[in-house]
Design a protein that fits this description.
Length: 150
């Protein structure tokens, strides 16, 4: 029936409430499901596990939902569901180099380059033998946790 969601979906509001509750836990507390990712390696692990287990709800639990509603949220869940259904090849953090301006007083000083995380690149197969599909997710820090957005 058009406009209905699969029964295995949790609503984005329920996921947001569970994520906000998890974010209020002390940083040393680690909850298997429903906890927010306090570090980027935790986020990569959770997303990798969600995709490997084809668990769209676990994948959606790490999505940054504020500002999405109605048909936009449903379309996002459709995209996450498609992501969860495809076999994972690779999931990597993408970065950008940030260098402060050079010191004009020292022409031989080497810049202190920092790698700043900007997103995640997810490589998946499209079907069993199809060509790879690349999905880029942006990273967001909110309430002390890392979240992704399409």
């Amino acid at each position: 029936m058009p406009g209905t969601r699969p029964a295995r979906w949790l609503t984005p509001v329920a996921l947001l409430m569970a994520s906000a509750h998890a974010a209020a836990l002390p940083a040393t507390t680690r909850v298997y499901h429903g906890a927010c990712a306090r570090t980027l390696p935790d986020l990569v692990y959770e997303l990798t596990s969600a995709i490997d287990n084809q668990d769209v709800n676990r994948l959606a639990a790490h999505y940054h939902w504020p500002g999405l509603a109605g048909s936009t949220a449903n379309a996002t869940m459709d995209r996450l569901d498609a992501m969860a259904a495809r076999p994972l090849l690779d999931l990597r953090i993408t970065t950008v180099d940030i260098a402060p301006p050079p010191d004009p007083g020292d022409p031989f000083a080497l810049p202190d380059v920092r790698l700043v995380p900007t997103g995640l690149r997810v490589e998946q197969l499209d079907g069993e033998r199809g060509p790879p599909v690349t999905t880029r997710l942006s990273l967001h820090r909110h309430v002390g946790c890392w979240w992704v957005r399409l």
